[in-house]
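pinned: reference chain
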Amino acid sequence: MTPDSNAIGQQQALHHRGESPPPLRALLMPPLMIPTHAEFAAVRRHADTLREWFARETGWPLHIERDTARLYKRPADASDATRGLPGYERRRYALLCLACAVLERADPQITLRVLGDRLLTLAADPALAALGFSFTLQAQHERRELVAVCRTLLELGVLHRVAGDEEGFVQGGNEGSDNLHDALYDVQRRVLAGVLAASRGPSTWPADEAPATLEARLGALVAEPVPDSDEGRRTALRHHLTRRLHDDPVIYLDGLDADLRAYFMNQRGTMATRLCDATGLVAEQRAEGLALADEDGELTDVAMPAEGTEAHVTLLVAGFLSARQSSGTSTDEVAAFIAGARQRFGKFWRKSAREAGSEHELAAIALERLRRLQLLHLDGARVRPLPALARFAVGEAELRPTAPAPTASLFD
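pinned: its structure tokens
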């Protein structure tokens, strides 16, 4: 090999090492990636390294193909209700699953109207009716629900819009054959096949063995075998903690069982260093636990601090609650605090937030944001701050008027 070839090889190796964190971070959010993503080409270049890293550190399988990359992230805690798509609850998730079932059997192209008609057939299953689920597409809000599901599938890359517009379908109804009230999609089957991240299909249980409750079913969907050996159990503990450090805002020691706590206390420094080196996250270690913070705010569903009225109110509420770490408070007291803060900061808020009575809605939004960040615990009307909330404790704000810019002079 010539000296020039050696130099080129060294430069490629340096480039490879320097480039590896960005595609790794990109796979954490979103874990289902299509070629239009800015990091898709880098993910394909580093496919072997990324597969090896995720398999070793998290136990998450990574499948990379020509037109899709799927990191099969499985949550460490399937019962965590703070996870999920924005605006989704059980009913909309049911519609999403039914839509995917329709697309799995569909031709390479499908219209929104045909998708809705076939979904109605599946929604009429007596088993769903027995659970209180119904869907007819007769009301505009039901058509809007279907459109919301389609837009989620468009964002995931499962569908690609060829023609038409969803809003016409919402306004025009589900009757008639007017193409102005329809949309045409290409179905991306490889992407569709990667939507479900379960370790086993939910339809693979025999009827007499299926889990009886939703919680049991969710747990069974992501359950993975653990080798009956000391090394296998240690690996399972490491994977569990690493998944939580990547997926959860913070790990609290009092939320771990005895085995996890013992492993975590012994390994958290080494684990944090290793994960931060690979992902570019920053470790925040406290007596109560550990968090991997993203200073750029790219790897979070709920940014804090952020812009906007709700974000500002949330930051104010965080400061208010951080002073009540020991005693806790109630949702009514939080609303009263917001009403008082409105007198001082309301001129910076949107108009509806300045109206009397809006403090209750703002309190609910702020508390939910903080709950999703695992900064507090809600038990009915009681609010219990959690230790990591202390990072948002701030001093009294000082508002200063902005001085007018000096006028330029020709004689300066």
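why pinned: Residues 5-20, 405-412 have pLDDT under 50 and may be disordered. DSSP finds 16 helices and twelve strands in the chain.
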